[in-house]
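Summary of Year 1 activities. Much of the first year was spent building the evaluation harness for sequence design. The harness presents a backbone, in tokenized form, and records the residue chosen at every position. We chose the following record to illustrate the format because it has been used consistently in internal testing since the harness was completed.
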């Protein structure tokens, strides 16, 4: 499984995918397909946190994320060293730190703007 670097991450993902029925798997892939459709990448209101693993070889995600970050200067782009596509499994501490920091910065900003 090429989507994760750590064997423990790959084992976890294999188990999760094995637990899915064919119909569930196809429904998930249909949702993913709709999310990565070019129309889904239209301008959006507010900042987005873009996280990609250093070793992510899933499609063109690394190139797309870098291009997205250049197109949307208010968004944050981070590459997680030593991680694959499932960076949150390979490097959970780093990913969680990025997410909580992003939310703290932007939720505090939202509260200040509305208050």
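For this record, the design step produced the sequence shown next.
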């Amino acid at each position: 499984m090429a989507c994760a670097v750590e064997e423990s991450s790959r084992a976890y993902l294999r188990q999760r995918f094995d637990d899915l029925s064919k119909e569930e798997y196809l429904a998930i892939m249909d949702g993913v397909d709709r999310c990565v459709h070019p129309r889904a990448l239209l301008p959006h209101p507010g900042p987005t946190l873009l996280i990609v693993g250093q070793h992510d070889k899933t499609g063109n995600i690394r190139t797309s994320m870098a291009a997205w970050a250049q197109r949307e200067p208010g968004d944050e782009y981070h590459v997680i060293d030593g991680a694959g596509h499932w960076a949150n499994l390979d490097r959970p501490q780093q990913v969680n730190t990025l997410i909580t920091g992003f939310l703290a910065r932007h939720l505090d900003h939202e509260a200040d703007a509305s208050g």
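DSSP finds five helices and two strands in the chain. Quantitative recovery figures across the full test set are reported in Table 2.
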